[in-house]
Structures are given as structure tokens and as C-alpha cells.
Amino acid sequence: MKSEAITEPGQHTLSEIFSQPQCWSACLSQLATSAELRAAIQLLRPGADWIFVGCGTSYYLAQAAASSFNHLKLPARAIPASDLLMYPALTLHPGRDYIPVVISRSGRTSEAIRAAQMLEKEHNLRTIVITCADGQPLEPSCSATLKLLDADEQSTVMTRSFTSMLLGLQYLGATVSGNDAFRRALTALPQQVEPLLKDVPQRLRLFVESRSFSDFVFLAQGPLFGIASECMLKVTESSRSYAQVFHSLEFRHGPKSIAGSETLITFLMSETSYDAELELLEEMKALGAATLVIANRVDSRAQRASDFAIELGLQSPEYVRPAAFAIWGQLYGVYYGLKKGLNPDSPKNLTRVVELADGR
Q: Are 214 and 198 in contact (CB under 8 A)?
């Protein structure tokens, strides 16, 4: 899915954000029949733990993927590539078996390549890579490669590549665990999300243009924490704004000191923790914070306590939905960057790929 020639600031990123439902369908359809998926499944070893490895956005993707795998009864954890390289003994324990999955949109991220090489050569672990590029250096460093080429982007920041690779890994987990209902729900998600992109973005943009903030906070629990982390990063990258992320109920334990009219607190509320997070939402509103709510169902109490609310109304199960929550953090970052006169397609100090010189 190549973007057309676009010259206006932010238009590449916006085009890629809005293409996500179609991109998800294309990627899942291709993955379902791919020899790559079958090759990855051949690496499955009973009793092995899954390790998801990434940098930046790919690390937050790893967090979200690990959550789904644990839900599917496949023990998993996420680890930054840098931590794996510098402190391998904190992750890899003697006598334990692991199936590592290295995540990189470009397949050229230096730390991801080094982590894959270390896992394969020094620890004799057969490693899977998931990427949106073909024939890049990460591919020969691993034993199996899942390529979602339709999800690649022109923009510096990751948007549809993040959500597409997340869905691809969830699909892998559902296939490995034999959970056909979960797999069917993943393939149904794009059609459920597409109608939301018709009117919610314009309402969100009007909200962005009507308010300015000095602090941004994203809160979530469980399966949505990795998504909240990615939303934090998108606002930071696309609008050069100060943003933080916390587990929702941890916000009471110190961080709530920043709550006030200049702070926008975004709640990504899931079903399991909804009631507890609703109490926190009302508490933060009472402290004077501006609040934005993203939830599958937004009840009347949440509506009253929010300055802006997005109700997804999806039929999919709770652990299938995380990708649908990411879209709104992506859009907020772009809209706020445009409001500040920036070009979210090419954020300051950032490059599409982080490639380090030898020895760094």
C-alpha cells in the first residue's frame, strides 16, 4: 500500500493512519495462507516461553503482544533490545527454553539485529522476526520471518505498521494456541473499526484545536498498557510535547500531583478494569484535569467526567481490541503537531531507522 505523492505537512502520516482497517485486512489475509507463518509455527517448542524484543514503538508493540499471548495461555514477556544486549542474564535463565520474536518495521534497526544475532549464535535460540520490509539485514539473522509488506510506511513515525504487526502477532498466538474464535475475531476487527474513521477524527480534531495543554498523560491497565505507552510516544514524536504513561491506578501514588487544567489525561479503559478506572477518572476530573476517554462502551458517568469521549462499540472480545485503541493516540499526536505548526511526517531529530555505527 504505497502512499500517493503528498506535500502538505502530516499528510503521509494521516493517510497511513486512515488506511489501517484496509491494511489490517490485507496483512491478515496474506498471513493466513503464508508459508512464513507455517515456518514460524514449526519453531514451536512445548514448554518454551515467548520473548518479544523491540526498540521504541516496537518495544511497546512487544508489550501489547505479550499481553495477548499470556491471555492465550502462552507465557510471554516483552524486553527492550538494549536490555537484552546489556543484561541478558536478567531475561535468559539457565535450564529454560525460549522462543524469541524480534520486531522491526525496517528490518535494519541495529539493536534488533544485534539482539537476534546474539540469541541465535550465543544462546542457540531459534528466533522469529516480524517486519514490514523485504530482504533486510535482520532477516538472515533469524530462523523464520513474518513479512507484512502492505504495512510499510513513508512517514518517520510508525502507525499502521505498529497495529498491523500487533494483529499479525496476535494471529500467530491464536494459531499456536488453537484458539479459532480469537483468530476469527481478529479478522473481523477491520470491518468493525472502519466506520469509526468517518466522523470521530473530525470531532477529535476540533477538540485538539480548541484546547492547549502543557502536559499529556496516558493511563491504562492490562492489555491496553502497551497501547497507552505507544500513544504517549506518538504525542511526543508528532507534536514535540511532553507526555507520560502510567498504569491507571498507579497514577494516584504520586503522579496525580500534576493534575490540573493544563494537563490532559487520556484514559484507555478496558472492560475488566472499567469500574476502578471510572472512579479514578472522576477523581482526576474533580482535581481540575482535562480528561479524554477511549473505551468500548462509555456510560453516562464516564461521559460526565470527560471533556472528550470516544466510544468504540466493537463486538470483538477485550483482548482482540487493543489495535483499535491505538488509532486515537496516533491522530491526537498528528493533530496537535499540526496545531503547533510542525510537520508530523518528519519530526525533529528523528529518522525512520536507528542504525548505529559498529562499536556503538
A: no
Local structure of residue 247 (DSSP, 8 states): E
The CA angle 283-284-285, to the nearest 5 degrees, is 90
Burial of 253: CB neighbours in 10 Å, binned 0-12, 13-18, 19+: exposed
pLDDT tier at 235, thresholds 50, 70, 90: very high
188, containing H or E segment: helix 180-193
- Orientation of helix 160-177 relative to helix 180-193, angle to 10°: 160
DSSP 213: -
Backbone torsions φ then ψ of 312, nearest 5 degrees: -80, -40
Single-letter amino acid, residue 347: P
The amino acid occupying position 130 is I
Say if strands 290-295 and 263-269 run parallel, antiparallel, or are unpaired.
parallel
SS3 assignment, position 133? coil
Q: What is the pLDDT of residues 298-309, one digit of tens each?
A: 999 999 999 999
Using the predicted structure, report yes or no on whether residue 1 has a pLDDT greater than 50.
Answer: no
190: amino acid identity, one letter? P
Cell readout for 349 is: 531529530
- Which domains does the chain possess? 11-190 (3.40.50.10490), 191-339 (3.40.50.10490)
Model confidence at 5, pLDDT cuts 50, 70, 90, reads low
